[in-house]
Amino acid sequence: MVWLIAAAANLIVGALVGLTGVAGFLLPIVYTGPLELGVAEGLALSFAAFIVSGTLGSVNYWKAGNLDAAFGLRLSAGSLAGAILGVKLNLIIPEELVKTLLYVVVLLSGISILLRRESGAGETDRAAKAWSISDHLIPTLLLGFVTGAICSLSGAGGPVLVMPLLVVLGIPVRTAVGVALFNSIFIGIPACIGYMMQCSLIRIFPILAIALVFHAIGVTFGSKNAVRINQTVLKKGIAVFSVLVALWKLFL
After folding, report:
1. Residue 113 dihedral angles phi and psi, to the nearest 5°
2. Using an 8 Å Cβ cutoff, are 226 and 21 in contact?
3. Closest CA to 50 of 208, 238, 226
4. 220 to each of 46, 52, 55, 148, 153, how far by Cα in Å?
5. pLDDT tens string for the chain (252 positions)?
6. Distance between CA atoms of 140 and 117, rounded to whole angstroms?
7. What gap in Å lies between CA 209 and CA 204, rounded to an integer?
8. Helix (H, G, I), strand (E, B) or coil at 96
């Protein structure tokens, strides 16, 4: 039953991650809830899956022309350092405090996306000149560092926090999803290693193997079909999803 739940959860969450870039944060909930694993075990398994989804998803987004690799590398340089710090902070900062901060940011990001007006045909030139974080190195590194630390500390894969912020900061929605998936690799590697060191590998290896296979199948399906979704609908859907999840985690 444990293996069946792990396989089903990773298949579904993987598909959602491939389609929208978000939903990875659901995995720690499944592992520490229905499967009753320890926090370190749940986070180790989750971040291993995030490495897989980040790799497969970003490759498919890159092939579709929706991944700015240069910007993604700059963002991920900050995230790599932040993720290392986040694993260390996990030992000293109350988990509930960090999760509250995470979902407040997600809530505000989702609201900002919903309130952001779409550019019409007559606003193309002004939109092209709008401020974008991709043109600024220091803000990019700082954003990567802060989000990497928060995500590795709280168990969020990265896209649920990074993707809405990128859209708010001037990145097109599909590019934001692609970059967020790519970025999650650099959050996932140090986080996975750090939490694995606190686990019994013999105990979690069978679950890990099954989970990664089904997560890969789900992500591949989702990311290959993401280009078929209307951009405006995708953006609004992600925003609503982010707001609902944030409200759920904050108040329920």
Report:
1. -65, -40
2. no
3. 208
4. 17, 10, 10, 24, 27
5. 788 888 998 998 888 777 776 677 778 878 877 788 887 888 899 999 999 988 988 888 898 888 999 999 999 999 999 999 999 888 788 767 877 776 787 788 778 778 766 554 444 444 444 678 989 999 999 999 999 998 888 777 778 788 888 988 989 888 988 899 899 999 999 999 999 998 888 888 999 999 999 999 988 888 777 667 775 776 677 778 778 877 887 886
6. 24
7. 9
8. helix
Contact, 44 vs 199, CB < 8 A? Answer: yes
Cβ contacts of residue 64 below 8 Å, gap of 6+? 174, 178, 226, 227
List the end-to-end C-alpha distance of the chain, in Å, as a whole number.
Answer: 28
Q: What are phi and psi of 186, to 5 degrees?
A: -80, -20
173 membership: H or E segment, kind and range: helix 173-196
The CA distance from 147 to 74, in Å, is 13
Listed residue (74, 1, 13, 39) closest to 155, CA to CA? 39
Structure tokens belonging to residue 104: 């407040």
